[in-house]
Amino acid sequence: MQAWRVHTPGEPREAMRLEEVPEPVPGEGEVRLRVLAANVNFPDALLVRGQYQIRPPLPFTPGVEICGETDDGRRVIANPSLPHGGFAEYVTAPARALLPAPDTLDDAEAAALHIGYQTGWFGLHRRAGIRAGETLLVHAAAGGVGSAAVQLGKAAGATVIGVVGGKAKARVAEELGCDLVIDRTSEELVARVKEFTGGRGADVVYDPVGGEAYTASAKCVAFEGRIVVVGFASGTIPAPALNHALVKNYAVLGLHWGLYAAKDPAAIAACHAELTRLAADGSIKPLVSERVPLAGAADAVQRLADGTTTGRLVVVPALEALDTARPGTPEGGSR
Predict the structure, then answer these.
(1) pLDDT digit string (tens) for 9-38?
(2) Is the dihedral of CA 190, 191, 197, 198 positive or negative?
């Protein structure tokens, strides 16, 4: 089978190589899955660069989230067992952790439902306890993680402020349903939030960016507000001033969603049931901006790492056959 592999950490376009390799053999408690679609996540870029908290043995295949098909024909959502990640034609995954892919979503959408939406749901509901009528501020609102939080916030009855970088991303955030969109490249974020909220600030802040985004969040979070720290896509890990949290009476909440698999796996299944319900009634739908063939995976990971994408890029191996059958179809183009 074909699979992308990393022999030496580095930038995705240079470090990832598409190779012919044997199909992975399931270990005890694992199943083999044919990859229908593999979502591109920021951790994939960190894995390739050797900067993620988990470092699989070299060589490895990145790709932490897929929609796949079991040998008996079931369509499922899974986190592949590294080092045999999802940017390949086949993977192995723990059988006990498989989740049914919602019938209302296609393969690419189902592949993008799991990590980003689970992180959003746990962050907003379990950690921040968001309530209807509160104001939610989402950084990187047009990205894969941010767009999920926007949709989940609206589904929870919150007023949502989306922060983006640039006019194109602002249009995406508006289409997602944000009540206010702030373009951080041309507007003063703190002043706009204070103006929109009548001086109160945001009750909940969802921050997958870190760096300057966190600094601004601390300046415009409301009394008894909650800042949910999800990641550091900016590359800068902030050092919160705890005296500031004390005098303004707000909370800083960390979220490592992956821990729930070990600490409370039943909660992941319950969350998936809720996400499936929300997908069925149209409250959420992964924003898949581009479906790319397997040959385009390294470029897709690089573009995500560079921060030039909106929504989700999803690798769909079956598109390779379509490209061959239809000459002239641009590689990586949406279909």
Answers:
(1) 999 999 999 999 999 999 999 999 999 999
(2) positive
How far are the Cα atoms of 22, 104, 227 from residue 70, in angstroms, in the given order? 18, 19, 39
Contact, 206 vs 130, CB < 8 A?
A: no
Phi, psi angles (nearest 5°) of residue 130: -60, 145
CA distances to 63, 173, 174, 176, 191 from 319, in Å? 17, 28, 30, 27, 46
User: Please, which pLDDT band fits residue 328 given cuts at 50, 70 and 90?
Assistant: very low
